[in-house]
Amino acid sequence: MILTRSPGLVRDRRQQSRTFRRCLVGAEMVDWLLAIGSANGQVKSRHQATGMWQALLEESIIQHVTHEHPFRDKYIFYRFSIDADTEHSSRSWSRGLPQPEDEREADTKCSEVLGYLAQRAPDAIMRLILRKPSYERTTDDLEMIYDELLSIKALAHLSNSVKRELAGVIVFEAHSTTGTVLFHQGDEGKSWYIILRGSVNVVIRGKGTVTSLYEGDDFGKLALVNDAPRAATIVTREDNSHFLRVDKDDFNRILRDVEANTVRLKEHGQDVLVLEKISGNSNPYSHFKYSVMSGTGPKMLEHLLETRLDGRDKSLTMNQDGEKGSMSSNMECDSFLDDFLLTHIIFMPIHQLLTELTRHCRIESSVQDREFLLACKRRVVQFVHRWVTTIGYPVLEEPISHSFLQELMDEVQKDSVSFNTLYDEVLLMNQVMDIYKTYADERLQAAGQKWKLPPCGQPVSLFGAPMSNGEDYEVPVERRAVMRHDDDIIFRVYCADHTYCTLRFHLSTTAETLKHVAADKLGLKHDDLVLVELKSSGEKIVFNDGDVSVPTSLSINGRIFISLRDHLDALTCLPEQEKSTEGREMDVEMFSTRELAYHLTIFDWSLFRAVHEYELIYKTLGRHNFGKITSNLDVFLRRFNEIQFWVATEICLTNNMSRRVALIRKFLKLAAYCKEYQNINAFFAVVMGLGNSAVTRLTSTWERLPSKSRKVFAEFEALIEPSRNHRAYRMTINKLSPPVIPFMPLLLKDMTFTHEGNKTWTDGLVNFEKMHMFASAMRVLRLCRARPFSLPPPTPRNEIEVRGYIRSLRCIDNQRTLNTLSLKLEPKRA
């Protein structure tokens, strides 16, 4: 295309008395790529175009004329490798312009190639940055590297400040062939390595290969820490292996700097708070001098109240414009308060926090002056207001909270009259009490709310609400009720012989209680019984006695069984578990795809809105440790699996090949509309359903699909590609504005990654760096829901039918059954 559209780009060029044949200039190459790619939106910036050319350079399609530089958007010469080969072999430059058929083929494939390069560009840019010397890395470069380091397993235990320091010194290293030795046993330890791509063997003399390390693993750090020789030889076991490397001098300097910038506050000879000095590089926008690394709960709360909340009388702190002073602009740049509010339940339960707040606002001392006491009260009020507005009902549903809030309100009003001050605090407490009143009214209205877990695999629904009868479907799904701990749920518990009893209990009832009541109803002895989920695949999951929200945690076609612990192998699935769940048996082709996607998104949004951030903590650390339900999160996660298996089920139950082809095309359009509506959770589910092994093996069906549809599917698969910690997805979602329905399984994976890679307690202190990482993941929910979902609906055709249909989808979640259906459609080829 360059030769036909812009032949002048490729020509002989002269520099420093040397002629370079058939060259291009980097800056002109970027101009050209922007010109052809900006029309359809595939190339959006010079930065992206640079990454696309760098990807081609890494694939040896182009090269620097003297092999000295990566690709740069500058007056630097590059050439296509085929021209370089021609120069070296024959010095013949008679190769003419492409033939017309070559031009047509290039035009046809242009969009596809640009799309491929656009996907490769981010990783190529990252490698480009990592190849730069430290002194050439810009602030944006350092931020990109830091974001990359956040998702690397080997660095999870390091503080964020250390990761920011590493961003300035870590370098990229690649080895193209298998069998390359990175270092030998006995060598001096000079570097620490992290595997980005590929794998290595660990070889010890006399023992051979003792283990292998893979993407995300690290090696070589022990020799640096102990200043000892290498304990093993490291050999690449794959071609084109990529590594991150930190050299010894940089490693030791960072460790020294961290210790030098650490401040430890002690009480009775014991550390109670560990702070780290904030450098201008790590957070140039924060006016706070220290960040909290670890501490006791009470001491961190004290530090927060004293440093992050304003105890001054705002009526006396007017700025030059006559406006009241405010810390809000600075608060937005510092997350300590928000991190504390989102995670304190891990290390300081609500009743303990209320006790500490009471102590801070009721300091009894004849030494302290009145202004100090009022400042303490101001800080507590500001904290409580932020706490209630940020966290909401988990704070308000605690019985002790109401009495605390009422007493604080009364004290603030009394002090306001007595001392002629605290007017702003009275307003804040009025807002808090209004929030509590709204909460109390909603709870009164929802009193006696009951849910049911239908016996044939349908999702949990309100008891008495219609399941799918469109004519009775009056309550909009977007106003779905939140499941509370004291709501009742009706469900079945089965025995090994498939007899069952029906139970009705609070969602917060423990598995132990359910087990004992079910045993009594079924006439079983209580000796060594367990409550277990039996999945349609035959897998058995035993519930802990302390588990709550048991019925909502089931998989799509799972059932609750009670059994002797030693007799679990005797449990067999119910006949209906291997069939599809009960749903409305309607032809999905009768619905408009856009209308289907819209109402799917509306319903999913209602489920997503009901999930509280705390449920992520309960799920990750174990709800039995908190005695708190995760029912809203359970239902939303089930929805993802439901959509995924619905797609695979509908295709595998369609006997006619032409209809299967049409159905796949419809699901591809559905995925595209879900992406357009920013329902990324459903987008992932639909694409993963199409990628189910029972569907992808239908080669004859896929061969009948138009090439354009196959290309769209390939693009969608690239977006959900899990490599580099779902880098493609993360880059996509970072560009979206709310409302967004995120890919919830990945959020939970991030929480689990943080939990398993970092200790909660270090030397008896709360590891607050871990709390910060938890809070960062939890904030995603808030950001995604920052605006209401208010897209205009498509022109209605079958609105009532569609809304009923999407609530209870027909799906088979037994992979063995899906595979059997698939083999009947297209038997294995000989």
UniProtKB/TrEMBL annotation:
CDD domains: CAP_ED, RasGEF, REM. Residues 592-828 form the Ras-GEF domain. GO terms for cellular component: plasma membrane. Keywords: Guanine-nucleotide releasing factor. Residues 288-434 form the N-terminal Ras-GEF domain. The keyword tRNA processing does not apply. InterPro entries: cNMP-bd_dom, DEP_dom, RA_dom, Ras-like_GEF, Ras-like_Gua-exchang_fac_N, Ras_G-nucl-exch_fac_CS, RASGEF_cat_dom. It holds the Pfam family RasGEF. It comes from the Eukaryota. Residues 154-255 form the Cyclic nucleotide-binding domain. PROSITE patterns: CNMP_BINDING_3, DEP, RA, RASGEF, RASGEF_CAT, RASGEF_NTER. Residues 487-567 form the Ras-associating domain. Residues 4-82 form the DEP domain. One of its GO terms (biological process) is Ras protein signal transduction. GO terms for molecular function: guanyl-nucleotide exchange factor activity. PANTHER family: EXCHANGE PROTEIN DIRECTLY ACTIVATED BY CAMP, ISOFORM E (PTHR23113:SF327), GUANINE NUCLEOTIDE EXCHANGE FACTOR (PTHR23113). This is Rap guanine nucleotide exchange factor 4. It comes from Allacma fusca. The lineage of its organism: Eukaryota, Metazoa, Ecdysozoa, Arthropoda, Hexapoda.
